[in-house]
Design brief:
Largest sheet: 7 strands, antiparallel
Strand content: over 45%
Distance between the termini: 28 Å
Structural class: mainly beta
Number of helices: 1
Helix content: under 10%
Number of domains: 1
């Protein structure tokens, strides 16, 4: 996963997913991980990988969300490292994620408030 920059005025939490058939071959081939907390205007490197695409979801402490059409992905209240096809009664909520092409946009993702 790439760098994430939080250009929003509130702290955000990010969860991600990427292709990892070695770790998740029996469970949908995609590895899911979360949560990373990123303070306003900070930039962090999430778990690095060399895949072209990764998928992400973010939510802010002030209630904004950044979701997409990929998923659903089970998330948990605590930090987690799982696979797409592993559901659990302990899941906090399911989310859908946005795609990011690391080859086309190698600088990572900048999260900001979008115009309504």
């Amino acid at each position: 996963m790439p760098y994430f920059r939080n250009n929003h005025t509130s702290t955000i939490q990010v969860t991600g997913m990427y292709w990892d058939p070695q770790a998740c071959g029996q469970y949908g081939n995609y590895r899911t991980m979360g949560w990373w907390r990123i303070k306003p205007y900070d930039r962090i490197l999430l778990a690095p990988n060399n895949q072209q695409y990764f998928y992400w979801y973010a939510e802010s402490d002030d209630g904004r969300t950044w979701s997409g059409r990929y998923g659903p992905v089970y998330t948990y209240l605590y930090p987690f490292d799982s696979c797409l096809g592993i559901g659990s009664t302990g899941a906090w909520k399911t989310v859908t994620m946005r795609a990011h092409d690391q080859y086309t946009f190698p600088g990572g993702v900048t999260v900001y408030v979008e115009n309504p």
